[in-house]
Amino acid sequence: MNSQSRSLTTSFKDKLENCLCPPGNGVFTVNTAKERKEQLHQAIFGQATDVDTLWKNTLNQLPEASNAVILGIASDCGGGILRGANWGPLFLRSTLIENYSELKAFDMGDVRVIPHLLADKYLNEATIANCRKALYQDENSNYCISPLSITEDVLHDFYAEFPEKGIFGIGGDHSISYPLTKAYLQAKKKQGKRAAIIHFDAHTDLLVERLGIDLCFGSWCTHILDDLHEHHHLIQVGIRSSGKPKSHWEDTFGVKQHWANEVKEQGVEKTIENIFAQLDGENIDELYVSFDIDAIDDSYASATGTPEPDGLMPEEAMAILKALAAKYPITGADMMEIAPFTDSSGRGNEARDKTLSVGAEISAFLLEEMAKN
């Protein structure tokens, strides 16, 4: 039975309606940015009132919708330098709608986020009960309450229902890529497919923990390695801010890296050639692209928590992505760490809009590729 001939199961639709919310509403606010939310809802639903009902009705379209499915996770609780990436899903969606109105993607909504929480495993039973009462009006509910936990739980069910579809996650800080990639990799293994992760970032994100917390923006890669068929199926591009040399990360964790200075010195074409050489013979069926906007040089992407100089130019990143997409299906992806209100350049809205423009260009390309599959 294909996706065109079936509807959502009752249990999965109930989970979506409880654990998610309309696009843009995942960032918890009272009146802040109310106008921006209303503008987004007007663009998506044609009105800014009764949005919850309209969004729930659109969920029925998921089975026959595009294979590229957007999910926003407006959480920056797993960050820790400059906060503000929780605004990324709202702002990036608006930019995509404005600049890429022809995109064929289905927007499933946002994960419901209690902004003080990260993952359920860090919480005691009393806190979990209180938060279930706040989110679901039922302290005995079985639903998860923290953004990482909700994301993983929802996506395990999503891939079970729709193995042919892929999630494009919009963050949020990079800890969110932990449940996004974990659910994706485990689903691909069940499907008998071998997937690799292409990770664009200024940082390795290969800590074991940070200040005692094992799941955060600086450690998520470490904790999904065993879900890959081989550790070297994690390929990192754009690295340049690290207290340890490349050899440390590759020798310790078995990953493959292409530092930003190498891309500059040897050129993009040689970098692409080297990435293909690493993938050749590995029987890779599909790719997941995780993109931290700080992989891009801070002259183009300063509205982020940890902007870094000497990074990739947007055209370099796009050239690598286009080459990969020409050879491998991209069936999952994310865009992380866009923090529209956070900018260290002093250029204000200009820097914000520039960061969003670059992020949207890359996101639109990834969504177009995912929609093909």
UniProtKB/TrEMBL annotation:
InterPro entries (alphabetical): Ureohydrolase, Ureohydrolase_dom_sf
UniProt KW keywords: Hydrolase, Metal-binding
Kindly state a single biological-process term from the GO annotations of this entry: putrescine biosynthetic process from arginine, via agmatine
A molecular function annotated in GO for this UniProt entry is: metal ion binding
Pfam families (UniProt xref): Arginase
Q: Which domain of life is it from?
A: Bacteria
- Keyword Acyltransferase belongs to the record: no
Assigned protein family: Belongs to the arginase family.
- This chain belongs to which protein, by name? Arginase family protein
